[in-house]
Automatic annotation (TrEMBL):
Its main location: membrane. Keywords: Ligase, Membrane, Transmembrane, Transmembrane helix. It is a multi-pass membrane protein. One of its GO terms (cellular component) is membrane. It comes from Aquimixticola soesokkakensis. InterPro entries: O-antigen_ligase-rel_domated, WaaL-like. It holds the Pfam family Wzy_C. One of its GO terms (molecular function) is ligase activity. It comes from the Bacteria. Residues 285-425 form the O-antigen ligase-related domain. It is found in: Membrane. This is O-Antigen ligase.
Length: 503
């Protein structure tokens, strides 16, 4: 046997195997896979970018509604309710469909709010249950003939159905605002534009009161002459709208001041761009407050001052690390602001404050009768949006019978009359959940806490005023509160942009 030839063949085979290992036969396929993966990555980035553009476009819905909804009577008309229902249902459907089509793997990030949304959905569901014929639950005053007792729990089926649709549209708006508020810079930007929308209405309200000779949106006023009502009919509703905008603007102003202080410690020169910018923003806040004082709404002004105090304390506590000094300073500042407002602009407000006893007496008589209504139907209620019809069955002296009382002048009592004590408490639970979540966000965040603080302030204003008035039964005010709350409870993720506000 020729061992030299055998050794040479073994060496050649080893070299062949080495060559195969260095250049596998599917190396061309591997190269094609790399190109395919790169194309997939580019496609994913393109889809994600398209979805972000869609999200950014729909994030303008909140500020747009805050600007447009108050123009026709605060949107407090059935035809306007249905119009906004169509707009919001279509907006949610188009938004969800467009995101799903552009980026199928992308989800609308509201999963952490499922409990809150579920409670919200139970409210219109309770209204629809009232349309079921359950005559056994329809207890009414003894003087009502049995033949006139309706078969349904709701005394006005059409009103209850319309109200259920309206509440569903509120949930649609909330979902859109939360789903489009993922980036801190976008949240702060939209919060700014919400305040600018309220500021625009404050300016318009003052112009309509003074320059244009105290007119309403349709011309000469039929009521509330001499008071700022803006495009609303009722001055108290306009005052609540301005109050929620004020606390939003206060949070933004203090956020600007705190960020300026961190960037450039020390005092600013009088004519520095930062100082001028802060002064201009503070002037805008002052104009909104002046407009609210000219509404002469006692409860709304008091509620707003409490809301401003809450915002000041929370923002100062984050900036300075202590809460006692902000509590005292804020209380003193609110007291001074109150005195200045009364002395300079608030003669009408002061006059109305001096007559608060007689007004309180009338309200207390009304509330006693309303509580009697609740006691007769504590669980079933009289039907969503059925207060006007239901109250006429109980209306008697000493409450004036000179005109029809279409509202309970307390949103809490109105909810319990219309939905009963159980279902009527659900809206309060939902707002309470938003308050708690916003407060937790405020405590846990070291930055980007201005939206939760604005939410807390807006809820304080709305909740306090709702005890003695019906401002949250005006659709434009509900849109404003939902737009602020949606920004406050949103799940933020880090922004790729360094821009923090539309300054």
């Amino acid at each position: 046997m020729d061992f030299d030839k055998l050794k040479q063949k073994v060496s050649e085979r080893a070299l062949d195997r080495q060559d195969v290992s260095l250049n596998p036969p599917d190396s061309g396929l591997q190269f094609e896979e790399d190109i395919f993966e790169e194309k997939l990555s580019e496609t994913a980035r393109s889809r994600s970018s398209a979805a972000r553009r869609i999200t950014n476009s729909f994030s303008w819905l909140g500020p747009a509604l805050v600007l447009l909804a108050p123009i026709p009577f605060g949107s407090n008309r059935p035809v306007l309710w249905m119009f906004w229902c169509v707009v919001l249902f279509l907006a949610l459907a188009i938004f969800a469909g467009a995101v799903a089509a552009r980026d199928p793997g992308r989800s609308i990030r509201v999963s952490s709010l499922r409990g809150l949304i579920a409670i919200g959905l139970c409210i219109p569901l309770a209204g629809l249950v009232q349309l079921v014929p359950l005559g056994i639950l329809n207890s009414l005053p003894a003087h009502i003939p049995p033949d006139l007792v309706p078969r349904r729990m709701s005394l006005s089926a059409s009103s209850s159905l319309m109200a259920a649709l309206r509440i569903l549209s509120y949930i649609a708006l909330f979902v859109i605002v939360v789903a489009t508020s993922l980036r801190p810079d976008r949240v702060k930007s939209r919060l700014h534009y919400i305040f600018y929308a309220v500021f625009a209405h404050a300016v318009l309200g003052l112009v309509m009161l003074t320059v244009l000779g105290d007119i309403s949106i349709l011309g000469p006023k039929e009521s509330y002459e001499g008071f700022a009502t803006g495009t609303f009919v009722n001055r108290n509703s306009f005052a609540t709208f301005l109050g929620m905008g004020l606390v939003c603007g206060m949070a933004l102003l203090m956020d600007r001041a705190n960020r300026r202080r961190m960037r450039r410690p020390g005092k600013l020169s009088l004519l520095s761009p930062e100082r001028i910018e802060l002064l201009m923003f503070a002037s805008a806040l002052g104009i909104v407050f002046i407009a609210q004082v000219f509404t002469a709404s006692r409860a709304a002004t008091a509620s707003t001052l409490v809301g401003l105090w809450v915002v000041y304390v929370l923002m100062s506590a984050k900036a300075r690390g202590s809460i006692l000094r902000p509590l005292l300073r804020g209380g003193g500042a609110i007291a001074v602001l109150t005195l200045v407002a009364f002395a300079t602009f608030g003669s009408d407000l002061l006059d109305r404050s001096l007559t608060i006893d007689s007004a309180a007496g009338t309200r207390l008589d009304l509330y006693k009768q309303v509580i009697g209504m609740i006691a007769m139907r504590p669980l079933s209620g009289y039907g969503l949006d059925s207060f006007r019809i239901a109250y006429e069955l109980f209306h008697e002296l000493p409450v004036s019978t000179a005109f029809t009382w279409s509202l309970a002048h307390s949103t809490y009592l109105a909810l319990w009359v219309e939905l009963g004590l159980v279902a009527g408490t659900l809206p309060m639970i939902a707002v309470g959940m938003v308050f708690v979540r916003s407060f937790k966000s405020y405590l846990n965040r070291t930055t980007d806490f201005v939206a939760p603080v604005a939410t807390l302030g807006a809820i304080v204003v709305a909740a306090l005023h709702s005890t003695v008035d019906f401002s949250l039964e005006m659709e434009a005010n509900v849109f404003l509160l939902i737009a602020i709350c949606g920004l406050g409870v949103a799940n933020l993720r880090p922004s790729r942009s360094t821009k923090v506000s539309p300054e």
